[in-house]
Amino acid sequence: MSDKPVIVYGASGYTGRLICEYLREYHVPFVAAGRDEDKLTSSMAANVPGIETADHEVVQVEHTTAALTELFAGASVVLNTVGPFSRFGPEVVEACLAAGAHYTDTTGEQDWVMACDKKYGADFAAAGLLLSPGLAQMYTTGEIAAEVALETPGLDTLDIAVFWGGSPTVASTQTILFNAALSDAHYLEQNAYVPFDPEAGHYHLNIPGQHEVALALPWGGTSHPVWYRRDPRVANVKALGGVFNRGLMLAVPQIVAGAIQATEGMAVEEKYAALAATASQVMSEMPPRENPRVNKSMDSVHASGPLGRKHVVIHGKENYKQTGLLQAYAAYSLLQQAPKRVGFASGCQAFGHRELLGQLLAFGLVQTPVITTA
Question: How many CB atoms lie within 10 A of CB 171?
Fold first, then answer.
């Protein structure tokens, strides 16, 4: 049982330690939890600036619903970074529900977001708890841009592009492969999920800020179609994503195709092991701390309706820092007041898009949105 109000599960990972860094800045006491106490302790000491001034403790815990429930008892918020979430998320969500704690995570897996909505949303709502998967730069910043556009009534279609600079972490690389090999990617058309054509290959986009045409992929479908499926303002959502590194974008479909072929006919657990091995060949080391000259982000949303158009662009930096801040602010907010929505909800639905944008601006991680109205 924890006597701290917030638990960061997977705190020794790249994103987990950034969350801890921002919890320290918000003066929020927390438990840094994971499966290896020595790794947690060394990661806090080496990678979280000012950790000696943070009100925290390190706790080793087994990845079982029972052990996690025991740890979460007494806590108010659990911030989960242990992915792939379709594989490791259910135990954490079930433990939060049993312990009476709000749940957020950093997933980029559309199938996991769908599962949270379908399997757990009603139970969390009945308990007055928030279930917010995918609270992260990878899609929440784009959702903020979409919500700014939707401040204009009568726009019912969202065309979203999300781009990042730099290298993905080990966990993000696994997510890319697991998404592609184990689940379909969907967009939203007239409030119904429609699968992307898996044979379509690259999409070519004209994105703000550069003359060169960028390469994009469905990137697992993203979280946006799930968040907006029951939003009466929106009927259609299509989101594409990519990295600014053209060489890496050219290589991704080949890597994915090879992984799918290599795992054909395997049982699910065998597929997980094989895909993890492939991911480690692509990215096996923790990337360096983000550099704002390299790690940039760009979220572009074209919103349209029968008689209206609006374009919103948010340029930012240090993608994983944005995620760390968003997660820490969620905990900070939940400790002081109830979310705007309980049960299954996106970051903007739970905390407000202007509130989240304000935090990103205050910490110097994004620019003021560029808005064009036609």
Answer: 22
Kindly report the length of the chain. Answer: 374
Sequence-separated (6 or more) residues with CB below 8 Å from residue 127: 97, 100
Cβ atoms of 146 and 276 closer than 8 Å: no
Q: Which amino acid is at 45?
A: A
pLDDT in tens, 120-174: 999 999 999 999 999 999 999 999 999 999 999 999 999 999 999 987 776 777 6
| CATH, domain 6-136+320-365, list 3.20.20.140, 3.40.50.720, 3.40.50.300, 1.20.1250.20 | 3.40.50.720
CATH entry, 137-319, from 3.30.360.10, 3.40.50.2000, 2.60.40.10, 3.90.180.10: 3.30.360.10
Q: What is the dihedral of CA 9, 13, 16, 20, to 10 degrees?
A: 110
Here the tokens at position 71 are: 């740890």
The Cα–Cα gap between 194 and 160 comes to 16
- Whether 93 and 118 have beta carbons less than 8 Å apart is answered as no
Q: How distant, in Å, are the alpha carbons of 35, 59, 82, 170, 180 from that of 38?
A: 9, 10, 17, 20, 33
145-148 CB contacts, 8 Å cutoff, 24+ apart: 145/299, 145/300, 145/301, 145/312, 145/313, 145/314, 145/369, 146/224, 146/228, 146/301, 146/303, 146/312, 147/348, 147/353, 148/301, 148/312, 148/353, 148/357, 148/369, 148/371
Neighbours of 180 (CB within 10 A): 23
The pLDDT of residue 229 is above 80:
yes
Look at the block and give the residue holding tokens 């992307």.
196
Strand, coil or helix: 8: strand
**CA–CA distances in Å: residue 151 to residues 146, 303, 312, 354:** 9, 10, 11, 11
